[in-house]
Amino acid sequence: MIFVRLSPHRLLLSAILALTWLLLSVPLPAAAQTVLAQLLPDQIASDLVPGAEGFGPLREDLAVAPVLKGGETVAWAFVTSDFVGTTGYSGKPIHTLVAVDPDGRVAGVRLVKHSEPIVLIGIPEAKVRTLVEGYQGLDLVAEAQSGGTTHEVDIISGATVTVMVIDDSIVRSGLKVARALGLGGLAPEAAATGPRYEIDTTAQAPADWATMEGDGTLRRLSLDVGQVNEAFAANPDPRAAQRALTEPPETTFIDMQVALVSVPAIGRAILGEAADQNLRGWLAEGDQAIAVFGDGLYSFKGSGYVRGGIFDRIVLIQDDVSVRFRDRDHRRINSVAAEGAPDFAEMDLFRIPAGTGFDPTKPFRIQLLVQREVGPIDKVFQTFDLGYDLPPQYLRQVAAPAPAPVPEAVPAAAAPAAEESQAQAELWKRIWLDSQVKIAVLGIMLLVLTGVFFFQHYAVRNERRFYAFRMIYLAVTLIVLGWMFNAQLSVVNIMALTGSVVTGFSWQAFLLDPLTFILWFAVAAALLFWGRGAYCGWLCPFGALQELTNQVARKLRIPQWTLPWGLHERLWPIKYMIFLGLFGVSLASVEQAERLAEVEPFKTAIILNFVRAWPFVAYAVALLVAGLFVERFYCRYLCPLGAALAIPARIRMFDWLKRYHECGNPCQICAHECPVQAIHPTGEINPNECVNCLHCQVLYHSPKVCPVVIKKMKRRDKLAASAVPDLGRPPAGHPNAARITEPST
């Protein structure tokens, strides 16, 4: 067998050509079809409806399939995503399989497919599946009569948005199917026979804020602390009353006002002419918008939308239509033009996209979700409603149109790609604007680290100062980048990138998380210059946690174990095998690979600050304890992310770490003192294992430790001493040299 050694440039070219071939060879996706058609073949009827024997053929006019028992149809099965939007935190649909019986009751329900980070954030998926299956028996007829409010939503702390999206999708899609099939006596909504109304674009703008409050243009929900405490006291969970707010009862908990600013007269009155024109440019044809103002102790926005993109504290409800707002449907209001407007802590616009079924001429309500912490990760919830009915002065009567046929269910995935792309672009731009401070902090950290690497000759001259600098930098990485910003890269990011390349790459999907995007670009550049160590040794929060805890262990004189070189070298490949295993699984199922990626303790130790189920915490703590005795134990032997970065790091174009000819033969000081044993006994530094801590460079310049430097210093001192003349005797050849005699005794 002949081995050919390729230069880094040829390796890079080969990788690019291989990637190009991969992209060209990937087959194009098949034509769009209903989600039910894709998922039903893998489902068992008896798991959905007890006693069922199978599924019948899918109907051609509606994305439903009969559930058969004894040859008769006992229910109709469908997937929620075929009828309503089910996008959750992950930005992908949550597919729930539902069966509705002839009486309009939910005969069975199962969560069949999702990309939610439920498992990743530590909530057992079985808990969510049990909650979903609890919708069996839900009376859709009663829900239709009440506008979808007869049932209580059992919200799981930490998965608020996920549960609310599932609840909303089950009820709304169930009602659509029940009406379309006439189940439980429900029938398709016929066109109204009475007077119909539309927005009067010629209506006059109200005079001031007080006028709008008086005539109903603005509607208000005002709650004080006493009212909220009273509501939580009635909660079935006794902990809710025990955690009552301690402020005086009359303290304003929230004062929230709402106006339908897509009505031109209202928009001009509240926003002013210029801002109202900007609003018109933001709204597409058929879109509506509301303005929400808030003050008091409680925020109607919260902070969950920053990470998840969904505002989980407010939802718009109209009959069986519910609209949950995402970042792409949100804008801030900078100022209010109406005279006499109060000062609000929060002023925001929320867009209601066309196609949701919302009718601005009909009454609707804004439901506010109030949460109360009752434990480290547990919360209880109460809802309060703000009703809104557009005043008649903004409406005008129109003739009723001829009845239209009932529209067929259209898969949610059939939305125009251009509209989705535009919405996603608006979302990531908004997220970047909201993350300016975080981006600036990360930019400064990257700039400082780049300076250290480029001028490492000067940075490592003073050993004590460099040690202090490194410890401070690692502390900032852990506390700020990790625990505060949650900017922890993961092997899951690599698997997501690979999946995106195969299924259709989109930059916008990766721009939704600015810190992760910037870090990955920085890592890509660093791989060409310094290898994987720039991230692993300096910017990885969990790596920083390991090193800082090990330094504390050293101060406490905990013994440090140095594994024999032969064993150490044989443990290296474990992390590569873990990575390749995860990568292989991701090609078949990204969801399964994400579950297996729990081999990374990053989510437990960094994202969730150890507030998680005990097995995850025990695993992360065990790795940290091992790191007290073997520095960076996890980084050395188990980290799949480090392995993934080490593979392309082989193409790095520069070698910045200096070595002497004597390194390794005979000197072994650097090899013995390398914190991660990345230096071979023969003196070579293994770039796949090096974390660029620069400790070897500190030793390289040390006049106290490095034998080569010590030898040079001694030679220099000897030459300097020999060059200094004897001040007591003139040099040879001096005229007075002969006159100098030895002193007499």
UniProtKB/TrEMBL annotation:
Signal peptide positions (record): none
Record's keyword annotation contains Transmembrane: yes
Transmembrane segments: 439-460, 467-485, 517-535, 611-630
Places the protein is found: Cell membrane
Main location: membrane
Region (Disordered) location: 721-745
InterPro entries: 4Fe4S_Fe-S-bd, FMN-bd, NosR, NosR_regulator
Start and end residues of each 4Fe-4S ferredoxin-type domain: 654-684
Xref: Pfam families: Fer4_5, FMN_bind
Keywords: Cell membrane, Membrane, Transmembrane, Transmembrane helix
Keyword set includes Transport: no
PANTHER family according to UniProt: ELECTRON TRANSPORT PROTEIN (PTHR30224), ELECTRON TRANSPORT PROTEIN YCCM-RELATED (PTHR30224:SF4)
Protein name from the UniProt record: FMN-binding protein
Species annotation: Paracoccus acridae
